[in-house]
Amino acid sequence: MCAILVSLAVGCAAPGAPEPPSLELARPVRDLRAIRKGDEVHLTWSVPTDTTDHHAFRHVGPTQICRSSGGPMRECTQISEVPTPEVQTKSATRFRSGNRSPRQQAPNPQASYTDQLSPALEQQSPTSNLVYAVNVVNSYGRSAGLSNQVEVPSAPTLPAPENFHAELSAEGVRLSWAAVPTPQPIPGLRFEYRIFRHDIDSHRDSIAGEVPVSPVSIPTFLDTSFEWERTYEYRATVVTFIDQPNGSEEVEGDDTAAARVVAHDVFPPATPTGLQAVFSGPGQKPFIDLIWRANTEADFAGYNIYRHEADKPAVKINSELIKTPAYRDQNVSSGDTYFYSISAVDVRGNESAKSSEATETVPAIH
Q1: pTM
Q2: Which domain holds residue 38?
Q3: 37 and 58: one domain?
Q4: Separation in Å, CA 334 to CA 276, 286, 315
Q5: CATH number of the domain to which 316 belongs
Q6: In sequence order, what are the residues at sequence separation of 6 or more whose Cβ sits closer than 8 angstroms to the Cβ of residue 21?
Q7: Average pLDDT along the chain, 366 residues, taken 10 residues at a time
């Protein structure tokens, strides 16, 4: 009898609460990113792989591209749509070890879209921002809401400068290009050329400098901050600056083609000037002091001293580079006349031409 009661009790147990059916709404995108370059806005985001109720997102519809001007969107202002990549259930894997370890999940697939801005849109509100969002809908046309919203300036950009050229000189890398046509002034906007430098050897990118856009001057820039014996690629663009009460925003135009420079230093220092030769005077061991104006190059290494007598070739008389603009020649003889010149040498061994000569005579001793 007890067995019968137990059996009835088990058979009459109340079933668990039924789970509601999935709404099949993809989780909203939370990592939308926007980068503007020229007239293009590049959007990227991670495709959701599960729904708001933690199921795999299987009933996939398109992704709507949303854009508004001036403020946040309450609902999608659609400008286009793209297919949502088919998502697969993330597969769980384990580390190949004897111990139990946490499961790893594959990253979400990535999606992208490029919005081509029209000149009319850029001129419509040149000092405001464009706001973007994406809206992933299911196959029934429903979604759980917009993604995070991102902003880019809507200001117009100018075309890339033409005839961009780079030339190496002893002073630096001289960049030149044709001036871009300047637009009608727009309150709150200003334009500058920006010079980019890419180090081929180290793959480092940097901004070499900026030059204001002017309708009256020929644009040029001298880069002196590079390193010798390296290879560089230079590009230029026109940057639009949008001045705001709390700072300024900027958007870059398209880049020029690259101009490559091999910064091999074959340029000697400047030829020293102001050389003077002075005899020491009687009553002491004779010598001739030389002085001259100092060289100021950043890569300067030292000087060489050359001497000769009448109708004889000049000979270098220092065994090591002279570091300061002064030298004392103690190897002189009574009654002889000497002709001196000097040259400057840089750290890579490039030697300048010889200076103008200075002459001095050691008086004869009677």
Answers
A1: 0.76
A2: 24-86+106-153
A3: yes
A4: 20, 8, 20
A5: 2.60.40.10
A6: none
A7: 43 52 87 97 96 91 94 93 77 43 67 95 89 96 96 94 96 95 86 97 96 88 95 98 86 97 95 96 86 94 97 95 97 95 96 97 84
